[in-house]
Each structure stands twice: as structure tokens, then as C-alpha cells.
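Supplementary Methods, section 5.1.

A reviewer requested that the exact input to the structure prediction be made available. We therefore reproduce it here, unchanged from the version used in the analyses.
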Amino acid sequence: MDGKDNAMNAGAKDTDPGPEPYASMEEFDDHHGFIPVGDTGQPGAACDLQCRLDCLQTSERFHVRRFTRFNQYPNNEDGLPTVMRLMDGSHGRIRDVTDEIGLRHGTVFDLEPMRQAEPDNTHMMAGLLMHYQPDLWDTMAPDWDASSVCLCLFAHDLRAHALLTDVAFKAQPGVLAVELERAGIVLPVPCDSVINWETHGDHLGLFVYDGVAMERSMRRYPQYYNPMATPRPDEVERDIAASVAWLETLRDRLAAAPGTDRAADAAAQGKERPC
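The structure derived from this sequence is encoded cell-by-cell as follows.
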């Protein structure tokens, strides 16, 4: 995933958009791919995502549902129900981080604030990496010592407060809830996001990113996403060098802009120079 993150961070110029970005990459092999989510308010959006998740080769069972409207509950300062707990952790140590994550608290359910702050963001909004093993009844169960979650929710918490629904008019707009039956975890999937999935044996990874930002990155740098392409190392190095140079230019321009500390320092130094 580091390579994809570097590609998404790189560069400032657009290239030929080429084919639709996800068309050849949704499931380019049996172990890794992308699921574009699109408009979650469209009829059939939940069913479409359910079908795509059911095609994954994994021990998990998925149920795509919706969150009950948040305004039915007392809300915190981010507009989310106070009874809703976002969990984060690994190796059996999972804790409530709802009050610690600032801006991302809301973007887990609505990407628009993040898009306004960082249009080309590459942040993982929420995700999980689960490992499964047979239990005493030979049923596949999560091995929490080898699993991790990032800004997910416990299904039993949501059910206890009736925060999950399958009724459209009762649902919070703009987001879907992917429930993992065996893990008891719910992954929030907001409108126009993309799920980067991976499966390896008894491992399952689901990672939610901003689909608009990722599509823009794919159009700029298709060679880094096309599984059939193998960019030469020298091409990659040139792309990185050009991107770094562009970022340094932007940094210097901003630093030298009127009203900044560096601009004031430069002006002061100019006055002190001898004639």
C-alpha cells in the first residue's frame, strides 16, 4: 500500500485520462482490488455493494445495512450520536477513540469536510485487517491477537441503541454500514468512497478511502495502478523528483508571500545591507 500512497501523493500535472480508472482494477487478481461505492443514496446502492462483497474469497459474512438517522439521538459537537463509539486498536487491545480524533470523527461518515480541507487527500478513513481461525465448534472466528481495526464500530453497540436499520426512510443519508457477522464489527462506508480490499488465506483487509481523490490520482498516474504496467525505476525516480521540486516551489512561494514571517525577515535583511 506504500506504493499506492506515494503515487497518490505525487505530482501536480494531469496526463491523458485513459480508460475509466476502476474499470480494469476492481478485481485484478484473487487477492486485491477496489470497490467503488458511488452515491449511497441511489436505489440499490446497498444491494450492489452487498453483491460485490459476497464475491470476495473470505471466511467472513457481510451484511450491508444503513445507520439510523443521527438526529434521532442526542448528538455531540460533531453531529454524531453520543452513544456511538469509534474503536481503534490491534493485538487484542481495542479502545474507544471517539474523543481523540478531531476532524476525522465526522469524515468517517461524511467525506465532504475532508475534501474541502484536503482535495487530494490519501487518508484511510476507516479500515480493518482481520485474521480468522477455527473455534471449538470448527467455525471460523476472528483471532483478535492478530487483527486490527481503525475507526470502526461494534455491531452489538449499534444494535443496543437501534442504530442500524434496513428501512430507507429511517436511514442516515450519505453512508452505508458494512457489518461483518463473524467479527461483530461495522465499517462505515460514506458516499463516493472506495474500498481497497485484500484477502490472503484467512486474512481479510478492508480499507476505506476518498474515492474522488483516488480517481483523480488514478487518472494522473495510471501506470502506478494498472496491474499490467511495470514502470521503470528511472521513470519513478523522475516522477518523484519532479513532484518534490514542485512542492518545494510551492513552499517557497507561500513562505515569501506578503504577510508571512519569512517575507518580513527577507525585507529586514534587505534594509540592513550596506549600500
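The chain has a mean pLDDT of 82. These observations are discussed further in the main text.
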